[in-house]
TrEMBL record:
Official protein name in the record: Tetratricopeptide repeat protein 22
Lineage, uppermost ranks: Eukaryota, Metazoa, Chordata, Craniata, Vertebrata
InterPro entries the UniProt entry points to: TPR-like_helical_dom_sf, TPR_rpt, TTC22
Superkingdom field: Eukaryota
UniProt cross-references to SMART domains, sorted A to Z: TPR (SM00028)
Pfam families, per the entry: TPR_8
C-alpha cells in the first residue's frame, strides 16, 4: 500500500497538468458552512445555466459542459447520474482525459476499486505517461483540451461573494485557456475559435469587475486589446452563435472605450476606429435574424445592458420567426420581463415628475405572455413572474400599500404558493419578498414579517438585493406606530436585523436603505433612538443619525419604497 502511495505522489509531481475537476481550486470543491439548502440552490441554478449553454455549444465545448454537469450532479448527491454522465463522455469521446479522471474519482467514492484502477490505467495510457513522447502529437492535443475544459469550469464556480474572488477565478480560467493554446498547436482552427470565444467572455466579465473596482487603466488596457483580437478571430467562425455574440461583445467593448482616457490601441490595430457600437449590435442581430434561440440570447444581453427597446425589438423578431409558445416560450418570458421593467421605469418617472401615470398596458401585455407560457411550460420562474404581474395589478402604482384589486392580489398569492411547491421555490429570496408584500397589504403583518426575515436569511453574502431589509424595517416601525409591538421588542428586532443586514449586504447599501426608512418614519426612529440611548445602546443610534444626514445615491429604479 505504501508503494502505491509513493508511486501516485511521484506521478503527480511529474505531471505538467492534472486531469479532472475534483481537484481544482474552486469553491465548488470545498465545504462551506452555508446550510445544505443554500448549497443545493446555488448548484441547481448553475446547472440550469449550464444546460442553457449546452443548447448552443457543439464539438469539444460540449464535453466541457457535460463534465461540469457531472461534477454538479455529484455534489447534489446524484452520484449515479454523475457516473452515467462521465461514462457517456468516455464512450462518445474515449480520449477525454477529464472524463476518465472524474470517473475514477466517482468509482473511488463508491469503493469500486477495480473500476477505478481501470480508469486510472486508461488515463495513464492516454496521457502517454509510460512513453518518452508524452508531450508530443495526440498527447499534447489531449492535454490542451483537458486544460481548456478546466478553464471553462472556472466561469461557473459558486459562492463568489466579493470582487476579489471573482477576479481570482476568472484569471485562473484565462490562465488555463492560455496554457491550453500553448499545448494545442495542432488543434483545428474552428475548435480554437470556440476557446477564443470563451476567453473573450471571461475577459469581458473580468474587465467589468475591474471597472467596478476603479482599477488603473494600464491593468485593463492589455486585456482589453487582447479581447479585441480574440473577437476578431471569432468573427471568422462558421458557428452562427459565436459570430452573433462576437459582434455583440465587440459593441460592448467599443462602448467601454470611453472609460479610458485615450482610445486603446487595439481599436485602431483591429480596424475598429470608425466603428459605432450600434453598428456592431445591428450586425449581431442581422447574423441571428432567422435563429430564435440566438435572438433570445441577444435579447437577454441587451436587457442586461439596459437597452430595453433594443432587447424588445430582438425579442419580437424571435417571436415573428416562431410564435408558438410551446416552441419559443423563452421569448415570451423575456418579453414579459421587459414589459414589467418598462412599467416600473414609468412608475419611477412619474414619482420624479417626468411622466404622467404609468402605462398599465405593459403589465397587461406581460400577463398575456406569461399566461400563454404557463399553459405549456409551467415552471418556477413563470409562476414567480406572473405572480409579480398580478401583484402590481393589485396595488396602487404610486403607493404600494394601497390595495386596488383584491382579486389580483389573491391570484398573486396563489401563484407564489404554486411556485413554493416546486424545487427551489422555498429558497428564493425574491419570492419571499413578494409574498411578504402581499401579506402586508392584506394586513397579515406578522406573517409578512416572517417572509422578509426569511428573504434576508436566504440572500447571499454580498447581495445587492436588499429590498427585504427595507421592508422589514418599515414593517417593524409601522407595527410600533400602531402599538402592536413594544419599544423593547422593536429595539431587539432592529438591532438584530441591522446586524444581519450588515453581514449580508455592502455597508453603503445598508445605510442607503436605513436612510429611506428614517426619512419616512422619522418620529418612530426618534422615539426608538431615545429608548436606545436610555439603555446605553449608542452604537446603533449613532448609525441611524449618521445615515439620516448622509447623502447617498438613490435606490435602483426597480426597488420602490413601501412607505406612504
Amino acid at each position: 500500500m505504501e508503494e502505491t502511495t509513493v508511486d501516485i505522489d511521484t506521478l503527480i509531481d511529474e505531471m505538467d497538468y492534472i486531469p479532472g475537476h475534483f481537484h481544482l481550486d474552486m469553491n465548488l470543491n470545498f465545504e462551506t458552512s452555508a446550510p445544505i439548502s443554500f448549497q443545493g440552490r446555488d448548484l441547481k441554478l448553475k446547472r440550469e445555466s449550464l444546460l442553457y449553454e449546452l443548447e448552443f455549444e457543439t464539438g469539444s465545448q460540449q464535453n466541457a459542459i457535460q463534465n461540469l454537469l457531472g461534477v454538479f450532479s455529484f455534489y447534489l448527491e446524484e452520484v449515479e447520474q454523475a457516473k452515467e454522465i462521465f461514462l457517456h463522455i468516455t464512450q462518445e469521446q474515449p480520449e477525454n482525459l477529464n472524463a476518465w479522471a472524474n470517473l475514477a474519482y466517482i468509482y473511488d467514492r463508491l469503493n469500486q476499486e477495480q473500476e477505478e484502477v481501470e480508469c486510472t490505467e486508461q488515463l495513464s495510457n492516454l496521457m502517454g505517461l509510460d512513453s518518452e513522447d508524452k508531450l508530443q502529437g495526440n498527447h499534447q492535443d489531449r492535454a490542451a483540451r483537458c486544460l481548456a475544459e478546466q478553464g471553462y469550469a472556472y466561469a461557473f464556480d459558486i459562492r463568489l461573494i466579493n470582487e476579489e474572488e471573482k477576479m481570482e477565478k476568472l484569471t485562473v480560467g484565462l490562465t488555463l485557456y492560455s496554457k491550453a493554446l500553448a499545448y494545442g498547436k495542432q488543434i483545428p482552427l474552428e475548435e480554437k475559435r470556440s476557446w477564443y470565444f470563451a476567453m473573450a467572455t471571461l475577459h469581458i466579465r473580468l474587465d467589468r469587475v475591474w471597472m467596478n473596482k476603479g482599477e488603473d487603466e494600464k491593468k485593463r488596457l492589455t486585456a482589453f486589446n487582447r479581447t479585441l483580437v480574440l473577437l476578431q478571430q471569432v468573427l471568422k467562425s462558421s458557428n452562427l452563435h459565436y459570430r452573433a455574440l462576437a459582434w455583440c461583445y465587440l459593441g460592448m467593448l467599443l462602448e467601454r472605450k470611453y472609460s479610458f482616457s485615450t482610445t486603446p490601441l487595439g481599436i485602431n490595430d483591429c480596424g475598429y476606429a470608425g466603428t459605432d457600437p450600434l453598428d456592431c449590435f445591428g450586425k449581431a442581430i442581422e447574423v441571428a435574424r432567422d435563429n430564435p434561440p440566438v435572438l433570445n440570447r441577444l435579447s437577454k444581453i441587451f436587457h442586461f445592458l439596459g437597452k430595453l427597446e433594443m432587447a424588445m425589438a430582438v425579442c419580437n423578431m424571435a417571436l415573428d420567426v416562431i410564435p408558438d409558445p410551446g416552441l419559443n416560450w423563452q421569448a415570451y418570458c423575456m418579453r414579459a420581463k421587459m414589459l414589467i421593467k418598462l412599467y416600473l421605469r414609468d412608475v419611477e418617472r412619474v414619482k420624479i415628475g417626468l411622466a404622467e401615470m404609468p402605462d398599465q398596458s405593459n403589465l397587461l401585455g406581460a400577463k398575456v405572455d406569461l399566461e400563454k407560457v404557463i399553459k405549456v411550460h409551467p415552471c418556477l420562474k413563470t409562476y414567480l413572474d406572473l405572480g409579480q404581474v398580478y401583484y402590481y395589478l393589485g396595488v396602487d402604482a404610486m403607493q404600494e400599500l394601497f390595495l386596488v384589486d383584491e382579486h389580483a392580489l389573491n391570484k398573486a398569492l396563489i401563484l407564489f404558493a404554486k411556485a413554493m411547491e416546486l424545487d427551489l421555490g422555498n429558497v428564493l429570496p425574491e419570492l419571499q419578498v413578494l409574498k411578504g408584500k402581499c401579506l402586508w397589504i392584506k394586513n397579515e403583518m406578522l406573517e409578512a414579517m416572517e417572509c422578509f426575515k426569511q428573504a434576508i436569511e436566504l440572500d447571499d453574502v454580498g447581495s445587492t438585493h436588499r429590498e427585504s431589509f427595507r421592508c422589514l424595517m418599515e414593517l417593524l416601525l409601522t407595527l410600533f406606530a400602531q402599538k402592536r409591538i413594544s419599544v423593547e421588542m422593536l429595539m431587539k428586532e432592529v438591532e438584530l436585523w441591522v446586524k444581519k443586514a450588515e453581514e449580508k449586504y455592502p455597508n453603503q447599501q445598508v445605510q442607503q436603505e436605513l436612510r429611506l426608512v428614517c426619512r419616512h418614519h422619522t418620529s418612530e426612529v426618534l422615539e426608538l433612538s431615545k429608548a436606545m440611548l436610555a439603555r446605553g445602546k449608542t452604537e446603533l443610534v449613532k448609525l441611524l443619525f449618521e445615515t439620516m444626514k448622509c447623502d447617498f445615491n438613490r435606490a435602483r429604479l426597480s426597488e420602490r419604497s413601501l412607505s406612504f
